[in-house]
Specification:
- It is a single chain.
- This protein has about 475 residues and is α+β, with helices and mostly antiparallel strands.
- The protein has 3 domains: about 1-170, Beta-Lactamase (2-Layer Sandwich); about 220-310, Helix Hairpins (Orthogonal Bundle); about 320-465, Heat Shock Protein 90 (2-Layer Sandwich).
- The protein has 14 helices and 12 strands.
- The chain has helices at about 1-5, 10-60, 70-80, 110-120, 160-195, 195-205, 225-275, 280-310, 325-335, 335-340, 360-375, 405-410, 425-430, 435-445, and strands spanning about 90-95, 100, 125-130, 130-140, 150-160, 320-325, 345-350, 355, 380-390, 390-400, 445-455, 455-465.
- The strands form 3 sheets. A 5-stranded antiparallel β-sheet has the order 2-1-5-4-3, sandwiched between helices.
- Strand 1 (about 90-95) and strand 2 (about 100) form a beta hairpin.
- Helix 2 packs antiparallel against helix 3 (about 70-80).
Length: about 475
């Protein structure tokens, strides 16, 4: 495993290519060597079979061995038949294994011939004597005299010239196979380097991407199809990183801006209080004003921590069955006094249950309801409708008032985003209410959206009934 994790792809591909090509060349060399050797064997057997038939024909026609003159006649005929075949050996034995005829070299062993004719008559055999090897045939052949027993005839061919040739051929073949393996290894290295060039191209492109240039992307069209998906995935990752970096930068800027106002107020009030002696009531008033600023900052910090936990999926949900209509009515009671000041009518239609964290869901619905009451026109109605299906449940909270411009709808759930930047934080809360609502809905695997048409604005939450 460490080899594959530490070795470069080029070296790994080169090694695997060399091993594969060496294996193929080795197998090819073995097949060629075996085929050549088989061809020599077939050639030898063709010659041996022909000579055996010649001896068979000679014995059948002139093989009446009644006298020494007959034997000499047969010997002369066989000698004439073997002229020009210096590597051919012939030996003929009678029934008592006495040599009747043998070539001049006499390299064949009588014991080997007798043993072979008893074990493998008419089959090719190989004999070894001293440093020489012979391939031959042994057979019992009848003579021209029916009363005379069969003779044992051995025809053999010296294999030395074949062995010398095969040894030289195999040495040349294996040298060629070795050189070819080295050459294919070098070619494999070159091919691997060329094939991996797009990776080097991608590496050079990624070097140009920095924290200040997250908008750059890899050129998917400049890489092969096999790497296209990887390049696309990297581009998608860069897009996510760019968005996260922008959110982080924007959040840092926003939080600095939002904290600057209360801190500036605190510093100003404190300097003013210290500029001259004051009465106890004046100091109390200044401290109460400072306490309000501290409470606002404390809420903002708590909301930021909640958002950070929600985005990193660290929020632990205490799930239970929640009756949405009951929760909405409870929130109506809570905001009844504020609604009466603006002469608003609060209504709810439909109902249903979901499995959710009751407190967090109540906070999300409360944020939307508070937002609807705050921006609703006087003497209008806040309508809440609950629509349930077998898979999910949708809650619509609608109010009538100033519409939200369409270009702001996509950003309305961003942190610290306000449609009217001139609104003071003291009357608009921390600016994190809708962002917190979205994080709570997302934690419940739901979705939230907003639409604004004419004088009506509708916030919609869709939640799965069970998860």
């Amino acid at each position: 495993m460490s080899f594959y994790s530490n070795t470069s792809i080029t070296r790994r591909l080169t090694l695997l290519f060399s091993l594969a090509s060496s294996g193929v060349l080795l197998a090819l060399g073995l097949v060629i060597a075996s085929s050549v050797e088989k061809h020599f064997e077939e050639q030898d057997m063709e010659v041996l079979s022909g000579k055996m038939e010649l001896v068979r024909h000679t014995l059948g026609k002139f093989g009446k061995l009644k006298s020494p003159a007959d034997l000499e006649n047969i010997t002369a005929l066989l000698d004439n038949s073997l002229i020009g075949h210096h590597s051919l050996e012939v030996m003929m034995l009678d029934s008592s294994n006495k040599v009747l005829f043998a070539t001049s070299t006499g390299s064949l062993s009588i014991d080997s011939i007798v043993d072979s004719v008893n074990r493998k008559p008419d089959h090719p055999v190989i004999w070894k004597r001293a440093d020489q090897s012979y391939r031959g045939l042994v057979a019992k052949l009848p003579t021209g005299d029916a009363d005379q027993p069969d003779l044992t005839v051995a025809v053999a061919m010296d294999m030395v010239h074949h062995e010398v040739f095969m040894q030289s051929f195999q040495q040349t073949l294996w040298v060629f196979v070795g050189c070819a393996a080295v050459l294919t290894g070098l070619l494999g290295w070159s091919v691997a380097r060329h094939g991996l060039a797009p990776l080097h191209f991608m590496r050079e492109q990624t070097k140009e991407i920095t924290a200040h240039q997250l908008d750059q992307r890899l050129n998917v069209g400049a890489v092969p199809i096999e790497l296209g998906e990887l390049a696309q995935s990297l581009n998608e990752m860069l897009t996510r990183l760019e968005e996260a970096f922008k959110r982080l930068s924007g959040f840092s800027s926003d939080i600095a801006h939002e904290l600057r106002t209360p801190v500036s107020n605190l510093m100003t009030q404190t300097h003013v209080a210290l500029s001259r002696p004051r009465s106890a009531d004046e100091y109390r008033g200044i401290l109460e004003s400072n306490a309000e600023e501290f409470e606002h900052m404390a809420r903002m910090i708590a909301d930021m921590l909640l958002l950070a936990k929600a985005e990193n999926e660290l929020v632990i949900l205490n799930r239970e069955k929640v009756n949405l209509a009951t929760e909405i009515l409870a929130l109506f009671d809570y905001y009844e006094a504020v609604a009466e000041e603006k002469e608003l009518q609060l209504t709810v239609e439909g109902g249903g249950e979901v499995v959710a964290d009751r407190l967090m869901l109540r906070r999300a619905l409360g944020n939307l309801l508070s937002n609807a009451i705050r921006h609703a026109s006087s003497k209008t109605a806040i309508q809440v409708s609950i629509q349930a299906t077998q898979q999910d449940i949708t809650i619509h909270i609608a109010n009538k008032g100033d519409p939200i411009p369409e270009e702001f709808l996509a950003r309305i759930f961003d942190r610290f985003f306000r449609v009217d930047p001139s609104r003071q934080h003291r009357t608009e809360g921390t600016g994190l209410g809708l962002a917190i609502t979205k994080s709570i809905v997302t934690a419940h695997r739901g979705t939230i959206s907003a639409t604004s048409s004419g004088d009506q604005t509708v916030f919609s939450i869709q939640l799965p009934i069970t998860h």
